# Entry
Amino acid sequence: MGGTMSGASNWNAERAAQIINEHLGLEGPMLPILHALQDEFGYVSADAVPMIAKALNLSRAEVHGVTSFYHDFRHEPAGRHVLKLCRGESCQSMGSEELARKFLAGRGLEWGGTTADGDLTVEAIYCLGLCACSPAAMLDDELIGRLDAETLAEAVDTVSI
Amino acid sequence: MTRLFIPKDAAALALGAEKVAAKVLAEAQARGVDVEIVRTGSRGMLFLEPLIEVETAEGRVGYGPVKASDVSSLFDAGLLNGGAHALGIGRVEDHPYLKRQTRLTFARCGIVDPVSLADYAALDGWKGLARAIEIGPAATIAEVTASGLRGRGGAGFPTGIKWKTVSEAPADRRYIVCNADEGDSGTFADRMIIEGDPFALIEGMAIAGVAVGATRGYVYCRSEYPHAIKTFNEAIAVARAAGYLGPNILGSGLAFDLEMRTGAGAYVCGEETALLDSLEGKRGIVRAKPPLPAHKGLFGRPTVINNVLSLVAVPHILAKGGEFYASFGMGRSRGTMPIQIAGNVRFGGLFETAFGLSLGEIVEDIGGGTRSGRPIRAVQCGGPLGAYLPVSQFDTPFDYEAFSKKDALIGHGGVVVFDDTVDMAQMARFAMEFCAIESCGKCTPCRIGSTRGVETVDRIRAGVKVEENIALLEDLCNTMKFGSLCALGGFAPYPVTSALRHFPEDFAPRHAIAAE
# Structure
């Protein structure tokens, strides 16, 4: 789950070490650790990689390989709010591509981009499981179905400061 | 006190259920009436969400789709007594959309409070697990085999045979892994059942544990489903506290416990071996088979890895007997399939029925045609890797073998409807693009082929050497189909070749120029 910067704290190596330690009792602790770090800091800092490697007795390359493989893990903080617009086929059947194209153009963004004021990051997501109410999106933790240009703009303007 | 039921299913929330529930509560307080609002899963009639149900002497009466601004008028109309209102649908059970279904897997979904043990037990909960413990592992596996249940994730492998293989593999420990990485666009059955009836999955996994001698299970759920993850973790805690999970399940002396793990946005992790690597903490890279996960699965141990729907079918099979389950369906496709009707469709939702309905019945009779009101042009079945079928193939029965004969797949039961504005060359391009984005990179046909596929479709759409490039695209699809390690690269050609075959006009140069 992409945390947003609004709830995230600044990078803190001590806190990161604590998070890593809390998960060492699990079988296969890597993904739970990465999720927990991202939940805490809003992204997985490059500084965390050697710490995880040491704790799990892996090479840094192996840990980097994992963090870079999964779409969810950010390597830098996102904007204060994150909008994930679904690009799955079901949403496409209801015009999501054009909706997204216009929205991105209106805000001067590309997929994955953040507005200049750091307020909003817009990302593609491939299916939220809301396919009977396409097009769908997730804005921070809120799900929105049956989107159109108006409801999308309204939702984004409501969370923006 | 009147009991009202309002879903907290993610789709209902996306349509405003939270605001509706808050408004109902506020309205009741303002009017000084005593109500209890039970938050349920969804009935699956997503075109009616948010659906409010009220308990009356005649059963539950429904109203939907309700907006917060409708609530006051609903109270005026006597909502609490099931009074008449423009949004009223009468007794929910009598709604034709539900009445036509055979609900085995989704029998409780939308009815119960998802984390209420009392609700679960009142509707046959834990009976399957009790019977599995009573009859023992061999007879449990025999029941599952007799049911004819086949893997609902898409591959359709017989569940009983998988379990038997795991039970016979020598090991110091075995695992049950539930694949809840429901990444296919057009599917939401796993999400709905985890949010609406999580104990059924817990019971199914516990039965699998009893059957194969596993004491530990993992549910690997995609991160795009935060509500399902939250509900399931609550359900695990409740079940554990009541002794349905833990060192001594149902007082049997048998141990079984489970944990939910969250994926990280990689579609390929829905492939079972990539999922296992991901659970182990690695990149989600597909493993070469053999060895099968049944022999060497999670952490190298024999592992049952089943889809959510397969595992949720199991308690019912054990409680009612395998033969009863097998009495539904057609040919080698036994039992029921929760079909998910999605996309540009009027009555989108979950429709559980025995195998054998025709595709046309599903999208036209049940789905009611397109939401846009335009004619249907194509239907994609089985997710991003499934074929596009034209209206001329609407007589195809929903059955693993019948679909396979048409070079199509049922997959996880998702059916996505497109109207006549769809550009099928664009959809073919998207299939390749999606495969390129999501490829794990292990095998060349998938990793490189998908990118070359995007480029080739682009050339066709631009009108560059169209015939040669179509031949090249078909050749590339053939290489990917037979040369890829797993279904991602192996099935990504299905949407492409089906689009080429059934909608050749969309690839013609004239069309490409017109579209530009």
